[in-house]
Amino acid sequence: MTNAGAHIHQPRSDAMDMSGTRPIDPAAGIPPTSSAATADGTPAAPFDPAGSRSLSTARWALALALFLVLSFGLAWLVAAPLWVDGGLANPLAPQLAVAMMLTPTIAVAVVVATVDRGRKPLRRLGLWPLTPAPRFIGYCAIALFGTIAFVFAALPVGALLGVYPADFVTFSGFRELIEQSFARAGITGDAAALPAPIALLVAAQFLNVLIGALINTLPALGEELGWRGWLLPHLLRLGLVPALLLSGLIWGLWHAPLILLGYNYPGAPGWLALLLMVGVCTVSGAVFGWLRLRSESVWPAAIAHGTFNAAAGLSIVFVARGHEVDTVHAGILGWSGWLVPLVLVIVLAATGQFRPSAAWAERAGRSRMFAG
């Protein structure tokens, strides 16, 4: 999760599957264990979106180990020039950060081509098909607008907790930021007057977030094919909760080559910065995982990831004049910001919304992995 500028839907008791074809019964809760039988009395096949249960334990572990070695190793290899020369001040840092986002996809490609081979890899990774269209479009919209909503919601939460010095009325910090940019450009006098009312300029930032989200989706897909496309379904063999926690932990630690250089948490000790990154990746990754499981597609997760990166910078728009944003404590990256996606995950779990879509579950059967 590299920031370019980072969750949504309140479940209803009468919620409909996004395909619009069948109601979801919230009372059904988590699917029954694998002892459930089909209509003819035979045991139901385990729910296995990634085909991981068709692998022996040894091959399953080998596939996981190979993915981790490649994704982490390639990430460090791509970031190596930053460690050799200049850190984040290296002029190639932005390009290398984007290149690093592609390493999980490279790792998945190798794993799927060698150890974890199976039929229909595009379907298994959630790349295709993009149907049913109503469900796919619905979850993409939730990913886009819902992520903006919960990233923004982290700001008033931080303000209420006293860790984010906010100005939601006069936008004094944003005004100061514009004035400083004019001064650096040598613009003074009447020319330095704001080109539009400050409220309009603030509103324009949300438009920038939408544009940035669309641009960020493709590089974010480079990560998401790894984390939610392959890793999360692969780990479901261990149970839903372990899969969500482990995939979040792995995702957070993968950022180490940049985080230890001061990325996202400048000034924080490396160990603390990495711990914080693991935290935000775990809670946010659970939301992205919900999108993956419910939509049967990796695209909503990629859109949410790209939107997260685009929207994370909103914290500097609403900060009060004379203050800086301490990302250890404030914004979606800080501990106070985690509360919003955490509450969302609790609501989704309590209402049984982490079940896979009805169509997906019917194709693969149901398993005790969702009892985890």
Automatic annotation (TrEMBL):
Q: Which UniProt keywords apply?
A: Hydrolase, Membrane, Protease, Transmembrane, Transmembrane helix
Q: Which GO terms describe its molecular function?
A: endopeptidase activity
Transmembrane stretches, start-end: 60-84, 96-115, 136-164, 198-218, 230-251, 271-291, 298-320, 332-350
Q: Which GO terms describe its biological process?
A: CAAX-box protein maturation; proteolysis
User: Its domain of life?
Assistant: Bacteria
Task: Please name the Pfam families in this protein's record.
Answer: Rce1-like
Q: What segment(s) does the record annotate as region Disordered?
A: 1-45
Every CAAX prenyl protease 2/Lysostaphin resistance protein A-like domain range:
209-310
Q: Output the InterPro entries linked to this UniProt entry.
A: MmRce1-like, Rce1/LyrA-like_dom
Q: What is this protein called?
A: CAAX protease self-immunity
Q: What species does this protein belong to?
A: Okibacterium fritillariae
Q: What broad taxonomic lineage does this protein's source fall under?
A: Bacteria, Bacillati, Actinomycetota, Actinomycetes, Micrococcales
